[in-house]
Write a structure and sequence with these properties.
- The chain has one helix at residues 2-19, and strands at 25-39, 52-67, 72-91, 95-117, 120-139, 145-148, 161-162, 165-176, 181-190, 195-196, 207-220.
- By secondary structure, the chain is mainly beta.
- β8 and β9 (181-190) form a beta hairpin.
- The longest helix is centred in the N-terminal third of the chain and has 18 residues, at 2-19.
Length: 222
């Protein structure tokens, strides 16, 4: 998985190098928080009665803005995010309890058409998510919480493991202040099922949904 991450970074750096030869290029960094939730009609198969709650996690990323004209441009971005969601789990020994589903993703936003007006940017486009790891909290026979990393899945797992890739769309807005600082918000919706049930009768329809708030700084091209 780390090899895939390095490949993604190299691709984005290549895109930046090629774009840096053009006019209207700005490069930025940003960090902030995200709220991760799950959506879909089969959520009750993962969490009791379909109950889930968004929890906040950290995110950090880089952005390349290729401004083609005064009002239009293209955004290329790469973000690393820790995402958490609270679930309700019940077993025959401990009954019901609250569990945390934890995941780490590298999200690639290859190209998002953007509209620019003064300091405001509005954009939308596709994204690809690469899962680095995943775990869920469970309870042992003594009622103690432990982290179940088997949720991520291995080559031996036949079903019930995490999908290693996600894909969907992003839409968001960013405001750039005259001093180069930025404030942004974005919404992500995945279309790839969260859990792989390859050997079951039906694939669960459970999908990622995320909301991000970030602050950053834009480095204007010399």
């Amino acid at each position: 998985m780390m090899k895939k991450t390095y490949t993604i970074c190299l691709i984005l750096l290549f895109m930046m190098r090629m774009s840096a030869q053009q006019e209207g290029i700005t490069f930025g960094i940003s960090a902030g928080t995200n709220w991760s939730s799950l959506k879909g009609r089969d959520l009750d198969s993962l969490s009791t009665n379909g109950a889930s709650k968004s929890l906040n996690g950290l995110t950090i990323g880089i952005t390349l803005d290729n401004k083609i004209s005064q009002y239009f441009g293209l955004k290329h971005e790469l973000f690393y995010s820790r995402k958490q969601t609270a679930l309700q789990i019940a077993d025959s020994i401990n009954g019901g309890f609250t569990s945390r589903l934890k995941r780490q993703y590298v999200d690639l936003f290859p190209v998002s058409p953007a509209f620019y007006y003064k300091g405001l940017q509005v954009y939308a486009g596709p994204y690809l998510g690469f899962l680095l790891n995943a775990s869920v909290q469970r309870k042992d026979t003594d009622g103690n919480l432990y982290t179940d990393t088997a949720f991520y899945g291995t080559g031996k797992a036949s079903h019930g493991y995490s999908q290693k890739m996600d894909a969907g769309f992003v839409t968001g807005l960013t405001y750039e202040f005259p001093n180069g600082f930025t404030l942004g918000a974005r919404y992500l919706r995945g279309f790839v099922p969260l859990i792989e049930n390859a050997n079951t009768i039906r694939q669960w329809k459970i999908y990622n949904e995320n909301f991000f708030v970030t602050i950053g700084y834009r480095f204007n091209k010399g």
